[in-house]
Amino acid sequence: MSAQLFTDSIRWGCVLHEVNNLSDHDPVCLCLDLSIARLSYDKRKFTARPSWFRAKSVHIDHYKSVLQSVLNKIVIPHDLCLCHDVHCCKADHVASLDEYVAQLTDACLKSAEVAIPFTRPSGYNGCIPGWSEVVAPLRDQSLFWHNLWSDCGRPHQGLVADIMRKTRARYYRAVRYVKKNKDDIVNKRIAEALSENRSRDFWGEIKRIRQ
Ligand SMILES: [Zn+2]
After folding, report:
1. What pTM was computed for the model?
2. Domain ranges (residues) in the chain
3. Residue 208: per-residue pLDDT
4. Distance, CA 75 to ligand 1 centroid (Å)?
5. Residue 24: Cβ within 10 Å count
């Protein structure tokens, strides 16, 4: 940090002691008073799309019935259907055809929006492979004992402090384990998905690897 920033801009600062911090170092939190006229950055835009591979038969059935009712409301352009001129350039026929096609595609897209699961932004479900099975239970335990230890006035010694340290160490070890064995965990899942022929799980796993 520059000396000028240090002397002119810091309103207050503190050190954060967090149970979730796996490092030997503690982060310094600073509240800075800076006059910034405009701050902008480009964020990658995420567009949600229907996730057909995740759609189950109940979704497909729902999609069919919604699509059917939307299609029923579309008026078929009979004049257009009766025109057999393959080189037809009549402006009203072209416009009518465009309109009809737009209505049909719109009907499919809108029905999917209602009935089919949609894709989520990458990392939305916190996808560290193995987290929910291996780490989450130990993290819950660690948080429980950390809170209890906090409530006891953060003692340096004693049973609660010991258990807090032990559960925290187990939680950190699990995090290191899933990070180190990320590829093995994914490979194992793919092998399981393939052996049980669960094609959707298989593609889900492939997607996770690509993220
Ligand atoms: Zn025509």
Report:
1. 0.42
2. 3-32, 52-115, 124-210
3. 62
4. 17
5. 5
